[in-house]
Specification:
This protein is of the alpha/beta class. Strands 1, 2, 3, 4, 5, 6, 7, 8, 9, 10 and 11 form an eleven-stranded mixed β-sheet that branches. The chain contains 22 helices and eleven strands. α1 links the parallel β1 and β2. It folds into two domains: about 280 residues, 3-Layer(aba) Sandwich (UDP-N-acetylmuramoyl-L-alanine:D-glutamate ligase); about 220 residues, Heme Oxygenase, Chain A, CATH 1.20.910.10. The longest helix is centred in the last third of the chain and has 28 residues. The structure holds (4-amino-2-methylpyrimidin-5-yl)methyl dihydrogen phosphate.
């Protein structure tokens, strides 16, 4: 059986149709498709709608809603059911009766008012929702919806939606207790939270629950060359009072499980956000392997991240609140498209795909000792002689790239870097001179096994593969040395490493200098551009990632060689 012929998780959406394609059934089906699932739909209403508003609603009779449901379910049992706009109390009551008979995961997004301000659920239907809640696994109200359901009122603000973080947490817990829905995610998009509020909560809760910053890995802020999220995560003193963060609160059995924190995305294209998020939760649940640790957290992390990328990568449509980029395919292609908030999705993926391995390279004891100036001179001497050999092959790999290139742009890029590497080797020559090693002696030093292994691997991949493979095989050296240079510079500022009186000052200056970091930046941009122009299939991405891992491992072994004087 081919891969495509495999059974896909079945996600059923029970919701209203949005004629503009921005929300409801249309948003749901696009999201389901992007997750590689099969989407089926039961319509509760047809809306005449565009990005500016809802012009009309045609309700589907409750018995026909149930007929649709029975047709779908009797043929293929859904793994998850997502409930969106339920239109009126008779549909809600009829659905509650039917859903009780089904054993499936239920996600409820209580669609009450559209982004454009149109009421989509009458008052009496809100009452009827009480029948549904106990059947719900994941419930995703926003602040106005949760307030409406619980009668909560803010103690601190005139505008009822402008809650502070403490009030949000209280509201999320009350919503969970009142509805008895299994898990509640209170979406925080209607209010803004300051960094100080989060820091205070973190101090008070002493790690009782997780706080996730943005969609990335928590360790991302340690990656200097990308430094994507560090400004949000560290929250400099001057920024702590600014209310510019959005927090979603996840509660289970009346207790907070996690806070998801991110910077507010400045976009008018938010039509269909709730639909996409709730559907993404259903898909993330259905596609996640069973019995993984922290299953619920992973599901919400993935769904929130998916939705944020959908907003951040949205495109112009209509004249009001435009739609999200619902089907941005990040899950199926395994890589999100670049956005203002994450302009380096490919390099982030490479680094994050094995963070411990990456750290074993860029924070290797050789690097740490070099920064402190405590690295034995014979270790550095051995390393710099071998690195001189390595650079020659590294330059040859770039010359091979120029040979393989088919545009002048690529030929120029490769030859420029080869020239740059030749200049870099002058630093090695002058270090050796200062150690009393002549150029002749340097050139006739035998290549060590770790140097030969790494250099030949790069040349081998470059010869065997295409131009992207070649770029991949040279990338971890370029990006890694940039990371080491920047990290050491930061360590100097923190007093953990020193420049003055350090024998290795010139080395540190070169790799944290403008010239080298400019090359790193061009290298990263180049890789991202290639990937964005021709997004890789999963198999291709896996091969590229494997080359990256092998090079990172060989880089780490190269430092080992220096430290342990391996010949
Ligand atoms: C059919 C339908 N379902 C849901 C929504 C809510 O989406 P939004 O809050 O983005 O307007 C909508 N406007 N129309």
């Amino acid at each position: 059986m081919s891969l495509e012929a495999k059974k896909r998780p079945h996600i059923l959406t029970i919701a209203g149709s949005d004629s503009s394609g921005g929300a409801g059934i249309q948003a749901d089906l696009k999201t389901i498709e992007a997750f590689g699932c099969h989407g089926s739909s039961v319509m509760t209403a047809l809306t005449a709608q565009n990005t500016k508003g809802v012009q009309g609603v045609h309700e589907i009779p409750a018995d026909f809603v149930i007929q649709q449901l029975k047709s779908v379910v009797s043929d293929d049992y859904p793994r998850c059911i997502k409930l969106g706009m339920l239109t009126n109390s008779s549909i809600i009551l009829a659905l509650s009766k039917e859903l009780k008979k089904l054993d499936t995961i239920v996600v409820l997004d209580p669609v009450m008012i559209s982004t454009s301000g149109h009421t989509l659920l009458p008052e009496d239907a809100i009452q009827a929702m009480n029948e549904l809640y106990p059947l719900v696994d994941y419930f995703t109200p926003n602040i106005p919806e949760a307030i409406k359901l619980t009668g909560y009122s803010s103690r601190t603000s005139e505008n009822s939606s402008q809650l502070n973080l403490e009030e949000m947490i209280e509201l999320a817990k009350i919503t969970n207790t009142k509805t008895r829905a299994f898990t509640v995610l209170l979406k925080g998009g209607h209010t803004s939270i300051s960094g100080r509020e989060i820091l205070e909560i973190r101090k008070r809760e002493k790690g009782d629950y997780e706080i996730f910053w943005e969609e990335g890995d928590d360790d991302l802020d340690t990656i200097e060359v990308l430094s994507l999220y560090s400004s949000y995560k560290q929250i400099p003193q001057s920024k702590q009072e600014e209310k510019e963060l959005v927090v979603d609160v996840l509660v289970n059995k009346g207790e907070v499980v996690a806070l998801f924190v991110g910077k507010k995305i400045d976009s008018n294209n938010t039509h269909g956000t709730g639909c996409t998020l709730s559907t993404a939760i259903a898909c993330a649940h259905a596609t996640q392997p069973r019995d993984v640790p922290n299953a619920i957290l992973r599901i919400f992390k993935k769904a929130i991240s998916y939705t944020k990328t959908a907003i951040a990568s949205s495109y112009p449509f209509g004249h009001g609140h435009g739609p999200l980029n619902h089907a941005h395919l990040s899950v199926r292609r395994a890589l999100p498209p670049p956005t203002k908030y994450n302009p380096h999705p490919f390099v982030s993926h490479l680094i994050q795909s094995n963070l411990p391995l990456w750290k074993s390279y860029v924070k290797h004891p050789f690097v740490v000792q070099l920064g402190k100036g405590t690295l034995p001179k014979e270790c550095f001497e051995h390393y710099i002689k071998q690195d001189y050999h390595y650079l020659k092959h590294y330059a040859r790999a770039h010359a091979l790239g120029a040979y393989k290139a088919s545009t002048f742009e690529d030929i120029k890029a490769f030859t420029d870097i080869a020239g740059h590497i030749a200049r870099e080797s002058e630093m090695h020559v002058s270090y050796c001179e200062s150690f009393g090693i002549s150029l002749d002696q340097l050139q006739s030093t035998p290549e060590s096994a770790p140097c030969a292994a790494y250099a030949r691997y790069v040349i081998d991949i470059g010869t065997q593969g295409d131009i992207l493979d070649l770029y991949m095989s040279v990338a971890s050296c370029l990006i890694g040395y940039g990371e080491v240079g920047l990290w050491l510079k930061k360590q100097v500022e923190l007093g953990e490493a020193k420049m003055e009186g350090n024998l290795y000052k010139k080395w540190m200056e070169d790799y944290s200098g403008k010239d080298f970091l400019g090359a790193v930046e061009r290298g990263i941009e180049n890789l991202e551009r290639r990937i964005a122009e021709d997004p890789p299939t999963e198999a291709r991405l896996a091969r590229l990632t494997a080359i990256w891992h092998e090079c990172v491992r060989l880089e780490s072994a190269f430092w080992d060689m220096g430290l342990n004087l391996i010949k």
